[in-house]
Structures are given as structure tokens and as C-alpha cells.
Amino acid sequence: MGAVTAGTRAVGLDIGGTKTHGVVLADDGSILAQVRKSTRPGADGVVDTAARVFAALGREVGGQGHLTGPVGVGVPGLVDVARGTLRHAVNLDVNGDDLPLRDLLAERLGVPVLLENDVNAATLAARALVDADDVVYLSVGTGLAAGLVLDGRLRRGEHGAAGEIGHLPVDPSGAVCGCGQVGCLETIASGRALAEAWPTPDGPPAADLFAAAAAGDVKAVAVRDRFCWGVANAVRALCLTIDPERIVLGGGVSEVGEPLHEQVVLQLRALGEGSAFLASLGLADRLSMVPLHYPVAAVGAALVAAG
User: Fold this and answer.
1) Beta-bridge partners for 153
2) Are 60 and 84 members of one domain?
3) Does residue 126 fall inside a structural domain?
4) Which of 83, 115, 136, 188 has the CB geometry, 3.0–4.6 Å to 230, for a possible disulfide?
5) Residue 245 in contact with residue 136, Cβ under 8 Å?
């Protein structure tokens, strides 16, 4: 992936509703250190968690004094990059008025902070992985969202909502989405939807679902196929509206690995069976996945810091 400026170390924090993942990139862009800690919700909890992860990263690389450059921070929700504010980050229990998160973090960490939406940050790392200028990163995590790099530039949109593919309605008789619409893709193809359709007492429901489907469980096959149909529809919608060179699949559910890729490819090919036009676009051939266990959002946040 793209190298960080010689002699510097870039720090990235991916603040999620469950965990905060921090990385330090060496000057060649490789991961020098990484730390994960559980995220404490609320504005104070988010700042405190980020501070603990930052301090732990400093210890990993030989003392916090080594981390003096800017820190890139990726967070869910609507981010105003210019003002450094965050709103509607429901998973972090940050609601209401704009939260000046950039300034709060900079004051606590003692270094400059650059704030970015987490999916947008991950998209920068995905772009570096595939080395292309037109890239969509499709994140299948708790929700469903996409990040867009077009002609080498990150596209955020007028209201910071570019890539909110999860809130595209596809089923008028479907479930009510958290956004207030009905039958959104996120109600079909997201970690939350999958957990509701295939609840498990412990362990990741996605891994359990795909294992049960591979073993021939009829119900599991039906749930898996509907889920992958939803992901494939997100890919189709993105390709028809943006026509990117590459689409990279990531997010927590992607930890299932190659079985997820295989099933989404099958659904994409099935969508093209009745349409020579759609088949000619080669949707499946554009799709790849983030390598297993690769901290794409945290690395992307570090790339935000590196400029």
C-alpha cells in the first residue's frame, strides 16, 4: 500500500460502537503496532477510550513521545470534516447537536486530529490495497454503507451522506428500517439483520450461519441466500450508478471470508442471467475482499493523518 512520508509514523484510530482499534503505520506503510479496546459509549466515553488506545500505542512503539504527528480518527455517523464535528452516531450514543469531537480529541491526546467518517477512511485503505482510482468500499458491518473514491478523490456528498447504500429501499413489504423507511437494503444485508434472522447464543452469527448452510441446513441456506442477495443488490446498485473499476467488500461480516465472496458472486451471476446488459458489466469480476483480519478502517484513518 502507499507509503507514509519517510521518517514519520502515521497513527489511526477506528472508533466503533463495540471496540476502538488503533494502529501505527511505519514509514513504508506497514503496520508497526495495533491495539484494541472496548469502546465506552457517549461523548466522554469515546474520548476516554481513544485516549487509552493512543497511550497504549505509544507504549507499543517505545513511549508516547514517539507519537507526535497528527492522528486520523474514523467514526460512524455524519462527519463535518472541515469543522471536525460529529452527529447522528447512534452506535456511539452520540446524538443531538454537533459534537466537536476533533477538538475534544486533540485537547485530550495533545496532538492534531483529523476526523473522518469510518467507512470513508476505510475506503482510502481499500483503494491502496487494489491500486485503482475508481473504487467503492462496501462495508457489511452492523449496518450497510459504502465509501466512494472517484477519479482518485474521496466523495463525501453535499450532506456527508454519499454511499449510504444501506438505506436504499428494495422491498416495499419489508421491515421498517432504523432510518424510518421500509424495506431498506440494511434490513436484509447487514450484521444486525443477519443476527435477527439467525440468532446464536454465542459467537458470531455470520460464521455460524455459513457453517450451518455449508452443512446442508435448509433454513440456513435460505437465510444465507437472502443475505447474499441483499449484498449483491448493493453491488449492482453501486455499479449501475457509479460504474467503479473495483468494489472491495469489508466490514465485520466479511470475516466469514471466501464463503461470503463465493455466495455473493453466485448471486451477482444469477442477477445477470436474465439480462444481457447486466451480464455484460462483469459485476462479479470487479468484486474482491479485504484480507482476513486486516484492520482496514484503522489503517485508513492513519492514511487520513498521513495526507
Assistant:
1) 150
2) yes
3) no
4) 188
5) no
> In which residue are the cell numbers 472517484 written?
150
Instruction: For residue range 168-205, list pLDDT tens digits in order.
Output: 999 999 999 988 899 999 999 999 999 999 999 887 89
Alpha helices by DSSP H, the chain? 43-60, 101-109, 118-130, 191-197, 205-214, 218-242, 258-272, 276-280, 296-306
At residue 6 the predicted structure's pLDDT band, cuts being 50, 70 and 90, is very low
Q: Do 177 and 184 form a contact (C-beta atoms < 8 A)?
A: yes
Angle at 139 between CA 168 and CA 289, to 5 degrees: 125
- Please check whether residues 259 and 301 belong to one and the same domain: no
Range of the domain at 109: 10-121+295-306
**Residue 218 backbone phi and psi in degrees, to 5:** -65, -45
Q: Is residue 127 part of a domain?
A: no
- From CA 141, how far away is CA 253, in angstroms rounded? 6
Nearest to 69 by CA among 57, 81, 84: 57
Going by C-beta distance under 8 Å and a sequence separation of 6 or more, which residues neighbour residue 180?
none
Retrieve residue 54's grid coordinates.
493512543
Question: Where on the phi/psi map is residue 140: left (φ > 0), alpha (ψ -120 to 50), or beta?
Answer: beta
> Are residues 252 and 299 located together in one domain of the fold?
no
CATH number at residue 112: 3.30.420.40
The average pLDDT across 122-150 equals 95
Mean pLDDT of 295-304: 96
SS3 13: strand
Distance CA 56, CA 37 (A): 10
